Amino acid sequence: MTAGRAFLDLHCHTRASFDSLSDPAAVVRAAAARGLTHLAITDHERIDGALEARDAAAALRASGAEAPVIIVGEEIRTRDGDLLGVFLTEPVPPGLSAHETAAAIRGQGGLVGIPHPFDHFRGSMSKAVETFEALAGEVDWIEAWNARLMVGDGNGRAAELAVRIGIPGVASSDAHTILEVAVASTIVVGDPSTPDGLRAALAGERELRLGRTSAYVRLVTPFAKLIQRRRGRGRVPIPGSAAR
Q: What DSSP designation does 12 have?
């Protein structure tokens, strides 16, 4: 890690998500190999994959190898669209309003992000645009670039939104496969290892790395969903981690 700079990705999935097959330890190794210093694991409605990734990172460091700081997070389906929560200790339940979800994240001392706000193929906040301004005081970042947004001008609109409402914009991989880890990331100045540190880093100088997931890799997701469903629960249990 270059002195004073951190390389982070605030949106990444593991096999704890219904639409990913990525082993948490393999995600950590890929992130380390590709230069990330901080990685938020944000599985859908679960944090057990993030906890396993955090343990894997600690084991790597104990062996003398480099590993990113793992930030425990979650991608949460709200009634108004998806939100990201990071620095969580417990999963936040889906189905609340955006305001209720943000309050639940804040109640754990966490930070709140808006993922892919103008992606019409996913749980986008664009279905309730009026909530953007109302949420402005409760949100810590907006994905100005989501590497998985394949169609349309959603990333450009998200970047404009971030500027318009005065929320820091970030670039995220939204990785669902190992190949995607760190394909997009954000460089900040400071130490984003804590909620206060991340908030301060996002408020300062930022450089966005705007990589994009290939269409071929993007098509892996439907097959991952099919495999997960055929295994019975729609999600693969994480060995050694309690389901939450």
A: B
User: pLDDT tens for residues 133-191?
Assistant: 778 889 999 999 999 998 889 999 999 989 998 999 999 999 999 999 999 999 999 99
Task: Output 219 or 232, whichever has higher pLDDT.
Answer: 219
Q: Looking at domain 5-230, which CATH architecture does it have?
A: Alpha-Beta Barrel (3.20)
CA torsion angle for 240, 10, 179, 92 (degrees, to 10)? 40
Q: What number of other Cβ atoms are within 10 A of residue 21's Cβ? A: 19
DSSP string, 57-101: HHHHHHTT---PEEEEEEEEEETTEEEEEES-SSPPPSSS-HHHH
Radius of gyration of the chain (CA): 16
Dist. CA 208–CA 199, nearest whole Å? 16
Burial class from Cβ neighbours inside 10 Å (0-12, 13-18, 19+) for residue 138 reads middle
Cα–Cα distances (Å) from 154 to 16, 130, 140, in that order, read 27, 17, 19
Distance CA 43, CA 236 (A): 12
**One-letter amino acid for residue 97 of the chain:** S
Cβ contact 39:192 at 8 Å: no
Give me the residue spans of the domains in the chain: 5-230
CA 151 to chain centroid, in Å, comes to 20
How far apart are the C-alpha atoms of 152 and 171, rounded to whole Å? 17
Task: Give every CB contact of residue 223 below 8 A, 6+ residues apart in sequence.
Answer: none
Nearest to 4 by CA among 37, 28, 35: 37
